[in-house]
Amino acid sequence: MQQRYATNPAQIPGMTTADLRAQYLVPEIFVPGEITVVYTHHDRIVLGGAVPAGRDLVLPGYPEIRSDYFLEHREVGIINVGGAGTVTADGETCTLVTGACLYLGRGVRDVVFADAGEGDESGAQFYLFSAPAHTAYPAALVSPGEGTVRELGDQATSNRRTLNQYIHENGVKSCQIVMGVTSLHEGSMWNTMPAHTHDRRTECYLYFDLPEDARVIHLLGEREETRHLVVADRQAIISPSWSLHSGVGTAAYSFIWAMAGENQTFDDMDAAPVTSLK
């Protein structure tokens, strides 16, 4: 388990591009045959990926979280961005097609990731987002399109997008996690505008469905001290609660957004109008 320690806004002016990437970019999440996890001290989130690549992968406990098993004191949201796969939780198997979301609550002991079976040309790639949990909520599986769907933005401003909320106040119940998928329409590149902060929650982005030769320019930092990171397909960003976040791609793409912190109110945002950015 890789660890990332918390940062504060005063560090941004003195950070190089390499420093920013080391703190906030997770460049390699999906490694065939492995479970890869990163622990950030921002709201004690764990994010990562599991790629079975033809064999079962068991989610272990890690010394860094001081638990006998991973979900002893945690919950996790799982979204499959690869081919069909299965997640077996305490003996109960769920099949996740591409884009499906599975929530597992505190107290689930055994979690096993696998491909759906022989003949599947593209293997499963499971994205994991975990936060500490104070109680146990039941497991829940949501298929693509079955969450709360919101149409946002406008083609005139290049941010027409479909947002599918899976784990949230009015959907799948959790202690802290809020999680879903946003897909930009063809010809739209901005994932949100105006940029915003929510100083009560850390948010992580996983960018995917991005062409190999395309990139997302992800904005971060404070509104008067902005920086950017160049992000490729299936790379993730850790966005601290104090940092604004917005991004523009060289082509349309999708992204998983996931948050944990003080509240679960999706619209609890503090806008940073483009005229205020420097």
UniProtKB/TrEMBL annotation:
Transmembrane segments: none
InterPro entries attached to this UniProt entry: KduI (IPR007045), KduI/IolB_isomerase (IPR021120), KduI_N (IPR027449), RmlC-like_jellyroll (IPR014710), RmlC_Cupin_sf (IPR011051)
Keyword Metal-binding in annotation: yes
GO MF annotation: an example: 4-deoxy-L-threo-5-hexosulose-uronate ketol-isomerase activity
Enzyme Commission code(s) on record: 5.3.1.17
Keyword flag Isomerase: yes
Catalytic reactions of this protein: 5-dehydro-4-deoxy-D-glucuronate = 3-deoxy-D-glycero-2,5-hexodiulosonate
Pfam family, one: KduI
Position of the signal peptide: none
Cofactor binding: number and manner: Binds 1 zinc ion per subunit.
Keywords: Isomerase, Metal-binding, Zinc
Cofactor: Zn(2+)
Annotated GO biological process: D-galacturonate catabolic process; D-glucuronate catabolic process; pectin catabolic process
Physiological role: Catalyzes the isomerization of 5-dehydro-4-deoxy-D-glucuronate to 3-deoxy-D-glycero-2,5-hexodiulosonate.
Family designation: Belongs to the KduI family.
Protein name (record): 4-deoxy-L-threo-5-hexosulose-uronate ketol-isomerase
Native source species: Microbacterium radiodurans
Gene: kduI
